[in-house]
Amino acid sequence: MSQPSQASSTSPPSPDAAHAHGKSPRRALPARPRWLMLALIALLHAYIGWRLLTPLPVAVGWKVLGGLWLVASTALIPLGLMSRAIQREPLATLLTWTGMTAIGIFSTLFVLTVLRDIVLGVAMVISAIDAQLVVRSAVIVLMLTAMATLLGFYNARRLARVVDVDVPIANLPPELHGFTIVQLSDIHVSSTIRRSYIEAIVEATNKLSPDLIAITGDLVDGGVPALREHIAPLAQLTSRHGTYVCTGNHEYYSGAPAWVDELRRIGLTVLENEHVVLAHEGASLTVAGVTDFTAHHFDPAKSSDPLAAVAGAPEGVPRVLLAHQPRSAPAAHEAGFDLQLSGHTHGGQFWPWMYFVPLQQPYVHGLHRLGRLAIYVSRGTGYWGPPKRFGAPSEITRLRLVVGTA
């Protein structure tokens, strides 16, 4: 295995104090936007209470409990979002669990309440509305929310299933036919995803005996001191040619320079606009990685550049790119890559957000084509924020390169 070929001779600037300590460089919201956000959250909860609690055919005590939950959720959501700024444990972890769970419940509850009002509005127009429809539809919204939350929690917390994908590559050398890459993506090690979760992923990955392991960004949500112990099992990943990593946007939120150093310390190869050339059964394969698509917002010297990542790579050798965001695909195509492995989207993570992903990304999940370039987008191996996956299951992806047509 050759050493990574550096994309640029420009020396990156020294990390600032936040990066040096592995902390997120986020700025606090000004007072007015913060209060506006809190007011909006409260208003939306009040809307849910008005539309759902009023018609429920239950005793007043149950309605009071429902109202208390909405009040608690109104407080827990911002506290959960701010929990990373709280240094005291176990308070920070408790607020993360409760706040993020509240976000997941609120999200489904709000969407279904809006859909219910649309249905009731149509029924009113066609004179088909009655008291029973109003009552039953409120009950159905609550039942569907409970079902989606429970199933979503189970799907998020269970070990991701293995998804097998064959990727046809034009002019693939026969020696590389059947070359296997296990892709892990968007694990988001954090207050709710800890060491035991990672150990299970590592064990499942190693059982697949891949030729190469690719981690396509958003591995962490937090600084190195807090999460070092929990990502440590990744050092036990085993494959014929090693484990390669590209950075995602959440690495930059969490102090990318410190995380790059830590991942390299435990034996992973982080590719920041650079590549390696692997020798396999007498054939060669170029594996490159780019920094996140938005990295230039944090460090202009780390601007994502697929062309620079492959500079100096041998011609006529298949090229695989690790790029966290699918929207790197046009630049990867121009740079002559054959396969791009991405994540970022989580496949939408839970209904109905998969339908909104195309507003930002060209691909949501699965295998796609852009000319000669094959793009595979993982739904992710963990989850972000709410411990909830509904309609977008997590995955450990085993990709097999196969000979394709030009």
From TrEMBL:
Molecular function in Gene Ontology: 3',5'-cyclic-AMP phosphodiesterase activity; metal ion binding; UDP-2,3-diacylglucosamine hydrolase activity
UniProt feature, compositional bias: Low complexity: 1-11
Calcineurin-like phosphoesterase domain mapped to chain residues: 180-347
Region (Disordered): 1-26
Membrane is among the record's keywords: yes
One Pfam family hit: Metallophos
Superkingdom of the organism of origin: Bacteria
Catalytic class of the enzyme: hydrolase
E.C. number(s) listed in UniProt: 3.1.4.53
Protein's UniProt keywords contain DNA repair: no
Name recorded for this polypeptide: 3',5'-cyclic adenosine monophosphate phosphodiesterase CpdA
Transmembrane segments: 35-53, 59-82, 94-115, 135-154
BP term (GO), one: lipid A biosynthetic process
CC per GO annotation: membrane
Keywords: Hydrolase, Membrane, Metal-binding, Transmembrane, Transmembrane helix
